[in-house]
Design goal:
Elements: H1 8-28, H2 31-39, H3 42-69, H4 72-93, H5 101-126, H6 132-160, H7 164-185, H8 201-207, H9 213-242, H10 245-269, H11 275-288, H12 292-295, H13 299-328, H14 332-336, H15 338-363, H16 370-381, H17 383-402
Helix pairs in contact: 1-5, 1-6, 1-7, 3-4, 3-5, 3-15, 4-5, 4-7, 5-15, 6-7, 6-10, 6-13, 9-10, 9-13, 9-15, 9-16, 9-17, 10-13, 11-13, 11-17
């Protein structure tokens, strides 16, 4: 059966997300590098990221009431504006940003919390099980497209303008793009809240015997363990291996180009009845592609790892994301509690990210050799296999439902 087409609101939501992604790809790729160059400290990068993850999770939980009971589009815009404030603050602080690592991380986490909470709720409302894989495929494709050009341009500008001037320029360009995305967001339909926000909803789900979220939650946390380290350490490792921002930009260009094609193909071809095997292949292969780094951590082996990850990550993330949101929408009652469930999903991701980040904070400040980095990446990179095991019954259930009788 052909997948349902995406409506106008879905398309506009994808455009707003793409602009937000471009602005973050321009500057966000280089924030860990910027802080590391100023401080030469792996601990600072870790604590900056720690503040970001914690505040993102808290913002999801607290802002859930706003999104549930009021106009959720204001939360989306607040996230975009706060992202602009974050980069403007880094712009003003310059090299002194290294003295404010945790507060800056918290500001960035708050911005991401407001944006992604509202985005995920609107995404759920604008899509349905028949077009969700297609939407996720397009979201991944556009995210990859942003990653193709933006970091490459940033790396080129930073290298050409010799550092500080280049960083100031890319931070300024990001501010302009954030402003454009805020303006476009006013064409998204107003979505006023309904019902009353339940603060302890997630705790009750996990405490209830037989509740499916008791198995889905650790699957989501397993995804977070990998994300918590990979989201910043890979780019930082590429820079420390090359000492060249332009090469980091080129690395992002190549890997994102591969991811763009892969997301497009998986989003187009993935069916509900093959999510189980597709996801298993994905979680195994994103661990296998780390193995070249045990031989040598160089630009070449990092590129092999990056291309391999880009090829196989859609096999993992698209069915994972779609199945979680299918669970949220499995009944009218759970759909009415979508904001609380999305907060619960984020709590799983945050807990997983903090677990992964804790391993980073224990290992790398003491030993940041190439071997230590590789073992850390491998240790957290195999965790999604456990996530597949937890989510497997949901995929099997969906597969049985799609089989002809």
């Amino acid at each position: 059966m052909a997948k349902a087409a995406l409506g106008g609101q879905c398309v506009l939501l994808l455009i707003v997300q793409a602009l937000y992604g471009i602005a973050n790809a321009l500057s966000g790729t280089f924030i860990p590098v910027y802080l590391w160059k100023a401080s030469q400290s792996y601990s600072l990068i870790g604590w900056f990221t720690f503040g970001q993850y914690v505040m993102s999770g808290l913002t999801f939980w607290i802002a859930g009431k706003w999104v549930k009971e009021h106009n959720k589009m204001n939360s989306l815009r607040a996230g975009i504006v706060l992202s602009g404030v974050f980069y403007f603050t880094v712009l003003l602080l310059g090299q002194q940003a290294k003295s404010y690592g945790v507060p800056l991380g918290m500001l960035n986490g708050m911005a991401q919390g407001f944006f992604w909470l509202a985005f995920n709720v609107v995404y759920f409302e604008a899509t349905d099980p028949d077009n969700r894989d297609r939407f996720n495929g397009w979201a991944g494709l556009l995210g990859s497209a942003a990653g193709i050009i933006a970091p490459w341009v940033s790396g080129l500008l930073i290298t050409t303008l010799q550092g500080e001037k280049g960083y100031r320029l890319i931070f300024t360009i990001s501010l302009v793009i954030f402003a454009i995305s805020v303006v476009l967001s006013f064409w998204l339909k107003k979505r006023h809240g309904h019902g009353t926000y339940e603060w302890k909803h997630g705790v009750r789900q996990l405490a209830e015997k037989g509740n499916p979220w008791r198995r889905m939650f650790p699957a989501i946390a397993a995804q977070g363990v990998r994300e918590g380290v990979f989201m910043f350490l890979v780019g930082l490792t590429v820079y420390t291996a090359t000492r060249n921002e332009s090469k980091l930009g080129t690395y992002s260009l190549i890997t994102s180009l591969v991811a763009l094609v892969s997301f497009w193909l998986v989003g187009k071809l993935l069916k509900k009845n093959n999510r189980k095997i597709v996801m298993l292949i994905g979680v195994i292969m994103i661990a296998v592609v780390i193995l070249p780094l045990f031989w040598n951590v160089s630009y070449t082996t990092l590129l092999m790892f990056g291309i391999g990850t880009s090829l196989f990550i859609p096999l993992y993330t698209i069915p994972m994301t779609s199945r979680v949101f299918d669970l949220i929408g499995q009944s009218e009652e759970s759909a009415r509690e979508r904001e609380e469930f999305i907060v619960l999903r984020e709590a799983g991701l945050v807990i997983g990210r903090l677990v992964g980040l804790t391993s980073y904070l224990i290992v790398l400040p003491m030993n940041h050799s190439a071997a230590a980095i590789t073992w850390l990446l491998f240790a957290v990179g195999v965790v999604p296999i456990a996530g597949w095991w937890f989510i497997r019954p949901f995929l099997e259930q969906q597969q049985r439902q799609r089989q002809p009788t």
